[in-house]
Amino acid sequence: SQKIEQNSEALNIQEGKTATLTCNYTNYSPAYLQWYRQDPGRGPVFLLLIRENEKEKRKERLKVTFDTTLKQSLFHITASQPADSATYLCALDDYGQNFVFGPGTRLSVLP
Amino acid sequence: EPEVTQTPSHQVTQMGQEVILRCVPISNHLYFYWYRQILGQKVEFLVSFYNNEISEKSEIFDDQFSVERPDGSNFTLKIRSTKLEDSAMYFCASSDQGRGTGANVLTFGAGSRLTVL
Fold first, then answer.
1. Per residue of chain B (117 residues), what is the pLDDT tens digit?
2. What sign does the CA torsion over A98, B103, A66, A96 have?
3. Looking at beta carbons, which residues of chain A come within 8 Å of B104?
4. Which one of B48, B91, B105 has the shortest CB-CB distance to A43?
């Protein structure tokens, strides 16, 4: 069956450290993968998109990697700040499926 | 910055009542979506809409649900006879690109919280 998993429900890290979030999928063939941020009671907000033929994408303190062999994407936030505390969602657009979201990882950056 | 607006922000209704949730997508976007998120659970796809018709829908989007674009700016989700399990946050989203184009970035509204008693 098709599945999207994100490494853990919650992740706590110290301010200034790098947060690494994982998204694994099975039985999908995504054309590209996206990462969104969701704050409590709000809608998801787009952060980064990476295509199947791209290995890595960066935007300011954010970095995304995409390994279609491992069926995995890693999302890194460097020099993390308490304001980065939120739930981070990965999302896939499979060629033959709808745009689907993972369950999310709730990141807490502790001062 | 253009945004997707949704109304109401919170609606409380009795089981069996009809509910209409409203959305104003970004003005130059052509693709519209409804997602829902039950408290503590993941964001789930309901339906996508393009060119005045449904392009895709999920198993959740049964006969109790319908969508409409009654004019050039609004996009509505109607739940005909609400059930307790319809209680959730409903998100509208829009995009200026279709799926599979490599640029289908969704802009979400703030959501409408539906509570069915």
1. 789 999 999 999 999 999 999 999 999 898 999 999 999 899 999 999 998 999 889 999 999 999 999 887 899 999 999 999 999 999 999 998 776 566 678 999 999 999 999
2. positive
3. 93, 99
4. B91
